[in-house]
Amino acid sequence: MDTQGEAELVYGDGEFRIVRRGAFVTCKVTGRKIPLSELKYWSVALQEPYADAEASLKRHLEVAGTEK
């Protein structure tokens, strides 16, 4: 089992579930690798992780802009 590669997660409200073990996930906005121990921001609706609050807000605004 690869614990050094990218993990696969299911994102829930305030928690996530590991589907495939790994050391990190990749931010949908920045492409930055986020160690699981540092993961704090994600979208339940979009099922994607973000490196920080700024990336999360940027993605939220992108998606909100396309729903008009």
Automatic annotation (TrEMBL):
| Entry-linked InterPro entries | DUF2093
* Pfam families xrefs: DUF2093
Indicate what this protein is called per its UniProt record.
Answer: Conserved protein
What is the species of this protein?
Tepidicaulis marinus
